[in-house]
Amino acid sequence: MDEYRLGSILLEGGVVDEAGLERCLAIQALTGSSRPIGRILVEQGLLDEATLTRLLELQKTRLASQAALIPADDLASGSLLTAAKANGASEIVVSEGRPVRVRIGSSWQRLTDETLSGPEVWDFVRETMGFDVLEQLAENHFVSRPWELDGIGAGAAIAFRQFDGVAGRLTFGRTTVESLSDLGIPEAVGEAIDSGKGLVLCVGERGIGRSELLASLTKHAAQDPSQYVVVVDDEPVVCQEDGALVVQRQFGIDPETRADVLRSVVREDPDVMVIADVGSPETFELALRAAEGGRLVIAYLDAKNVVQALMRIFNFYPSYELPRIRVALAAVLRSVLVRHLLPNAEYTGTVSATELLVVQDPVREVLRSGGVEDINLLLRAEGGACGYPLDRSMLDLLGSGLVRMDDVFARAEEKAWLLERTRNLGVATDAAKLTEKN
What we know:
19 helices; alpha/beta; 3 domains; eight-stranded mixed beta sheet; 14 strands; six-stranded antiparallel beta sheet; Beta-Lactamase
């Protein structure tokens, strides 16, 4: 545990020398060890308040990482999943020849120091996915199915073969669903859903925050008891007791299977379709046609921002199809929501940063013309009638003290714009150092 003590961090970073630290430890001992060593270092002039704050945050991060570890002699599936859940993990990965890792917030941490052997991984996937999973894995190299263990949780599970052997990835489904406001989703997205028709496109980085966002949007869409809502996803959904009828269809793995599932769902004639992934030409085309048919379609696409998402959609189609797609998008697209998760200022959780495109007449004109790059100009226009860029959302988070400048600067599209507007916010940053770093 020495590497997690404040004194060790001070020596590691060269902040103080051993003589200075020993003197402060002696002073602490004379007071019965009741005074924090950091406070003594400040009083002795060896440390300033700002540096102490940063070092305490680093210590907290290291302690949180250490807290995730479990003993090497307790690697049963129940123990691993219980420990992952206790640490607030959203997913866990076990793999032959590697330590167990969990995703906590937006970062990956070790759950074990020791690597897992083949039999330990085999037992884990059998206990969580069924005892026939290895036989299926030998034939298909990839198996996907839901998992559930009493008292621990439920979610989606994938077992696959990789270079070193068998691996498994389990996600934790949510037992509760947060509202749009709790997730930091703008009211305009809720209003687009309330309209009951068209395409609401959700965008984000692969595997980060998708499930909780779609669950929240589904909950909002299901408030009307007259609606029939179909969710197409491999992640289990939490259905509320009252409100709309909500059912779930498993999506499948390959594009052909996913397209077949969506065709079947469209034949059921639901009022609302929630589609977890429209990242192939077939699935996006079916989602687009469903929206053209008068349904509300909430769909998720992996991309970094609004413009990248629209460019990816246009790239699904050959050039002779683009005029039709531009007109169709201009007619049915209601909004595009981009959501990123940033570490909070204390590095104990995450904060939502969003980019929003509200499809008004200027946006429709741009979509029809195909000049997608002009979307950025509309997003950055004063007044925000057509939405706002990610940089503006992150600037608001900085002004509220919810995130750190380093994390925001790394994601900013217009770094010079961001730096100029943070000068009067009191944000502690060295612009020259940040620019050099990036």
